[in-house]
Amino acid sequence: MSELTRIPAPDGVAPATAYTHVVMGTGRFVAISGQLALDEDGRLVGEGDAAAQARQVFENLRRCLAAAGAGFDDVVKLTFFVTDMAHLPAIRAARAAHIPDDRLPAASAVQVAGLVRPEFLMEIEAFAVIGE
Fold first, then answer.
1. What region does 12 belong to: left with phi over 0, alpha with psi -120 to 50, or beta?
2. d(Cα 107, Cα 79) in Å, to the nearest integer?
3. pTM for this one?
4. Which of 10, 22, 32, 97 is the most buried (most CB within 10 A)?
């Protein structure tokens, strides 16, 4: 695990409410590709259900991070790609199950016209830094 420094509100920048503006760390960089709501057999989890999809996406992120020797404490940036911004509360709830409010990473949310298949409501990627 890398020692991370978080700056929630740099001077002259409005405070963040659901993310941290700046997260810094030293160590090995880990990039996790955008994860979808697929189970281990490639089946969609939660068709039409943003909360179920978000839970599955965060479980997939957890497994990918673990494969790299990392955990959610090492995540410095999340990017949420959503087909509707109305899905953000479900994503935040799933994130809260893994990341406490005082350790939030930097984050971006982008509404997209569509994802690789129309039944996917979200895709989430993660960047992490783990100690040497």
1. left
2. 6
3. 0.92
4. 32
